[in-house]
Amino acid sequence: xxxxxxxxxxxxxxxxxxxxxxxxxxxxxxxxxxxxxxxxxxxxxxxxxxxxxxxxxxxxxxxxxxxxxxxxxxxxxxxxxxxxxxxxxxxxxxxxxxxxxxxxxxxxxxxxxxxxxxxxxxxxxxxxxxxxxxxxxxxxxxxxxxxxxxxxxxxxxxxxxxxxxxxxxxxxxxxxxxxxxxxxxxxxxxxxxxxxxxxxxxxxxxxxxxxxxxxxxxxxxxxxxxxxxxxxxxxxxx
Length: 238
Description:
This protein is an alpha+beta fold. The chain has helices at 13-53, 58-67, 74-112, 118-132, 137-142, 206-214, 220-223, and strands at residues 144-149, 157-162, 168-170, 173-181, 189-195, 199-201. Among the domains are: 67-132, no CATH class; 143-223, SH3 type barrels (Roll). Residues 228-238 have low confidence and may be disordered.
């Protein structure tokens, strides 16, 4: 007996095949996405290094000229220069680990810190390297992941890295220094002075912060507690 309702159209084999192909494609993208992000980060670092010591840079030209003393081909000469520089760095590392590191540092400090401007840059760079080398463990432990917000507390917020708990008085207001990474490559970012009252401490680790930025927020649920709330249309009307 006819019901008067239109029959549900059956999906054609071609449509089913297209939907399955789309699922396969999405699954492939999601499978390769971590590899693509990793390759992107490595490519960014490689391009950064190339712009500093590549064959077309001043440093690269010096390496090529040095290598031309042994061969006549420019490419081979550049590679020889790179290998020799790496060998020198390796040799200095062996000497430093043997106990001469403090002596080398004192000699560099005595020479470079006396040069105007260059001395300031060298001193700052040395502080950063000491932190990375875990010599300045106290300064490294002071860095903390914090949550900051724009304007009032009800406004937009972002996760950042607090450089230190120190506060700086500027125009009768206390400010703190934070670093805001970029996504999905958190190597870059911006350094900001923000009002101290908008900086909220968190229990998030630095590894968690980097994971959230690299994944563009996808892994946030692994490090931050998510509160489930019903959608507006699901709220019961009393």
